[in-house]
Amino acid sequence: MVEVFGKKATRFGFGESLIELGKENSKIFVLGADTASSVAINIFRDMFPDRFLNVGIAETNLLGMAAGLAIAGFIPFVATYGVFAAGRPWEQIRTTICYSNLNVKIGGSHSGLMVGSDGATHQALEEIAIIRCLPRIKIIVPCDFIETKKAVIASAYVDGPVYIRYGRENTPIFTNDNSPFEIGRANILREGNDVAIMACGTMVYEALMAAELLGKKEIEARVINIHTIKPIDEKIIISAAKECGAIVTAEEHQIYGGLGSAVAEVLVKNYPVPVEMVAINDTFGESGNPMDLMVKYGLRDVNIAKAVQKVLKRK
User: Fold this and answer.
1) Any catalytic annotation for residue 251?
2) Which position among 16, 20, 24, 59 bears the catalytic label?
3) Full-prediction pTM beyond 0.90?
């Protein structure tokens, strides 16, 4: 059984880790875009008002000002909804930040379908794809509250741009303070040699639950938490392909350009095996209860289990 230590939204992991960083490093600076409370950076604002700036609903300015702070020697973290953090200022991220390899950390909150009632306009389902194509930037999609804290703290101490994708809703906490985390290195959470399930973000827990379902059918699934989409851990992907012979990817993102595509790129060059992808199937989301939406769009443990059964027929 998967041990769960309560539930808490990953956005609070983002916000609380900034407090820790702010206390130990006077160069940490946080910028928001009129969404401070929603993305949990209000706690940093209240504690360090001289190192916080609200630029208003002006995301291109948000990223441009962060770039200027990075040039001045600060370590700027920006945070707003993922659709606005990645979509509106994409050109600033590309040309001002990535081209110059500036030390800007971007928090994309409210990712995936789990935004719920905010609906399609606010459900970030494409940002891994549009950010992943940019040179020099790292992309981290932590799986729970604790891993989000580790991701934020680690990102502060690597040079260059980082995009961190996290969510609004409370989700299970199933890692702990001793769980390993290193940017660029995936973690095996469950052993198995029949198939490998590779997941990121909210879908890691669903992958673990799917492995429990499959175990009842005597299918032993290896579950891998690929929290870093870029640079992706090619070694662990290739090893899983050789040892398991089939792979299922799972992500709360469009089926194009995300984790599934990144894994497939590694495999096609190194060790091709059958792959099935559990993701948003080329459609927009809608308003609704978050878990109802996860069911409707096929992002639950049962959907991953079905994908496993399908890929095993191709093995």
Assistant:
1) no
2) 59
3) yes
